[in-house]
Amino acid sequence: MFLWAGSKGAQGSGSERRTIYQKVREYDVLDKRKTVTALKAGEDRAILLGLSMILFSVMMYFVLGITMVHSYSDSVWTEESSCTVLNSTIVAEINCTYSCGSECWKSSKYPCLQVFVSLNTSGKVVRLSHNEEAQDANPECFYVPKCQKDFNAIHTVVMKILERLKTQQQVLCYMDPGEQQDSALLTRIYGRLAVFHSLFWPTCSLIGGTIIIAMVKLTQYLSIMCEQVGRIKR
Question: Where are its TM segments located (predicted)?
């Protein structure tokens, strides 16, 4: 009886050990599955982030290619030169319109400041514009302010520009090297530095997105290699 009871107790303890081992094994498998699921979700999010960054950079390249790069390539005022201010006077008051609400427009005026300079490289006398926007809006005027109701405020701004030009006889300007344009620019909106700054962040986004996707793919490849090596050792 004692031997029978002892053997029965040993069998019971062995079954209990197997049960405990199975439970531990199940917990390990469950933990591994949870870890793999979490890693898979993190990898999917990382790939989605990388693709979003690449898509954003492509869209920015498209928009900037139409605006900044296209305007830069079409600009003829590419050569920097020194100009001597010959004359700067207000010649007229130009009519303009400003928005006063939805489908509401009212008329106002702004003083037309006309500036003539002499190119020191060739001695040619040309009209000076503040930038490309002023040249396109009204080539006769040096500065074209945003139209608004308060004419006195616009006049004050233009007078300050006039006084500053009178104190500076020599200014840096941008001219047409072919000398086909009878005007020069004081500043360029679409210069090399502006194009570089506009393309810098989309380029960083493109590189960052590519690196994120490459790192995720590399991690997945290394994980597969480690799993294969583990199977071979077994």
Answer: 46-69, 199-224
Q: What is the phi/psi pair of residue 145, to 5°?
A: -75, 165
The rounded distance, in Å, linking the Cα atoms of 180 and 76 is 9
| Per-residue pLDDT reduced to its tens digit, 165-222 | 888 888 888 888 877 778 889 888 877 777 787 788 888 989 999 999 898 888 878 8
Please name which of 79, 63, 81 lies closest in space to residue 71, comparing C-alpha atoms: 63
H helices within the chain, ranges in order? 2-64, 70-74, 132-137, 151-167, 192-233
Q: Convert the pLDDT of each residue in 29-68 to its tens digit.
A: 444 454 445 456 677 788 888 889 999 988 988 887 777 7
How many CB atoms neighbour CB 107 within 10 A? 10
- Taking the C-alpha atoms of residue 120 and residue 191, their distance in angstroms, rounded to an integer, is 22
Instruction: Kindly report the pTM of this predicted structure.
Output: 0.60
Question: How far is Cα 77 from Cα 42, in angstroms, rounded to an integer?
Answer: 51
How many other C-beta atoms lie within 10 A of the C-beta of residue 219? 14
Cα distance between residue 130 and residue 141, in whole Å: 9
Count of other CB atoms within 10 angstroms of residue 44: 11
By C-alpha distance, which of 183, 169, 149, 162 is closest to 84? 169
